[in-house]
Write a sequence for this structure.
């Protein structure tokens, strides 16, 4: 196998002429179907250049995506996405509802094929070597995949069997995973008796049964309480640090992405609109006129908030508690005008603090503030949870 100037692998294959038995050698890209002509008798024949099952060298990358596009009929879910995830990295994929995060993950898991472009996972092409890709990945999808009437151990063993893991190995692996999440005590209880947080811990280790090099976590803390959220976050960190697993994480919780991810790609309308470390992403707007003010008001009343909200440069207002507001603005005169407006409405302003831009500021700056209510008109096929018409947010059933 050799690479051409574009880095595309070339391979040769022999063809024995059915008429004169002359053996000729022909080259092409793996998977190519060629019509060849015998050099001795000019008989024509067909040759398929075999696909190599050797993984491609990835220069330290676990995943490479190049000009990926996904259409659902004429609806463009993924437009033109290219990025690479380094081995051992936790990579965050953030984006508004319907931006295309889960579609990218489904392509990387071989659950759906790209319409154009390529994706290579652990050295294998997701279309040409889907089986090989599956051996190297684990998926925690938006929907929890578990049998409620089976015990935790039975669920884990069932999924291990799907990978044809031998019994001895599987039993040890299941014990190890249950210890990893401190769930040994509940190993033989039915999933239906578990709290949502316990179920999600088992659901995460279910995706690790085959010791994947790459783990996809699609909104793993959706619907969890703060304690379970913290637990899953910590588990994500440990899977990455103790096992060196490469992780792609999607989440709508900016703090979660910031706490866990080395780099973050922000996706909107099927395109990556920014990709960098959280610190560098924040620098994207530190030079702009977007500011966030934290304001403390002793006698906070709804009319004061309405007055601030109606100011033209105010982009958002969030009431944090009985006396604190978070106000996002553009423009340089925002500070004076907000305070004036509050005082005119009888507010006793105790404190105004100009906060550093947060990841959420960057996110809103890049993706806008409008809620994404539109759905694909072709959205009639079985895309899994949350993809039916009229259901924009996936509801996890537990
Ligand atoms: N099987 C399908 N058929 C038709 N349209 C689909 C299908 N799957 C996804 N879509 C559409 O593709 C777009 C991207 O969906 P995707 O699930 O990837 O978004 P997402 O970023 O994961 O959103 P969320 O944050 O809500 O999970 C959406 O408009 C969705 O309706
Ligand atoms: Mg999704």
């Amino acid at each position: 196998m050799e690479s051409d100037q574009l880095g595309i692998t070339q391979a040769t294959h022999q063809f024995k002429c059915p008429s004169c038995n002359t053996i000729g050698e022909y080259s092409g890209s793996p998977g190519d179907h060629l019509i060849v002509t015998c050099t001795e008798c000019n008989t024509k024949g067909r040759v398929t250049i075999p696909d190599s099952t050797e993984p491609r060298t990835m220069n330290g990358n676990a995943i490479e995506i190049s000009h990926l596009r996904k259409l659902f009929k004429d609806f463009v879910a993924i437009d033109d996405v290219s990025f690479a995830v380094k081995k051992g990295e936790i990579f965050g994929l953030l984006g508004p509802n319907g931006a295309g995060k889960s579609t990218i993950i489904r392509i990387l898991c071989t659950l759906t094929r790209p319409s154009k472009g390529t994706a290579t996972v652990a050295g294998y092409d997701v279309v040409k070597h889907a089986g090989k890709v599956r051996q190297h990945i684990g998926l925690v999808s938006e929907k929890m995949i578990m049998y409620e009437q089976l015990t935790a151990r039975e669920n884990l063993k069932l999924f291990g069997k799907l990978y044809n893991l031998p019994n001895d190995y599987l039993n040890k692996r299941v014990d190890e995973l249950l210890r990893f999440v401190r769930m040994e005590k509940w190993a033989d209880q039915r999933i239906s008796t578990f709290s949502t947080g316990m179920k999600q811990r088992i659901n995460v280790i279910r995706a690790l049964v085959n010791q994947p090099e790459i783990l996809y976590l699609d909104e793993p803390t959706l619907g969890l309480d703060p304690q379970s959220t913290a637990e899953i976050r910590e588990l994500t960190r440990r899977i990455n640090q103790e096992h060196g697993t490469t992780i792609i994480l999607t989440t709508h919780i900016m703090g979660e992405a910031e706490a866990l991810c080395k780099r973050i790609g922000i996706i909107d309308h099927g395109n990556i609109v920014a990709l960098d470390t959280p610190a560098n992403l924040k620098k994207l707007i530190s030079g702009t006129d977007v500011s966030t003010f934290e304001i403390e008001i002793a006698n906070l009343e709804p009319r004061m908030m309405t007055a601030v909200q109606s100011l033209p440069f105010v982009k958002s207002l969030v009431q944090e508690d009985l006396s604190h507001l978070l106000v996002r603005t553009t423009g340089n005169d925002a500070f004076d005008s907000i305070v004036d407006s509050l005082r005119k409405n009888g507010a006793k302003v105790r404190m105004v603090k100009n906060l550093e831009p947060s990841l959420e500021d960057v996110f809103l700056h890049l993706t806008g503030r409008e809620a994404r209510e539109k759905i694909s008109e072709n959205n009639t096929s079985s895309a899994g949870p949350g993809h039916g018409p009229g259901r924009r947010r996936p509801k996890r059933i537990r």
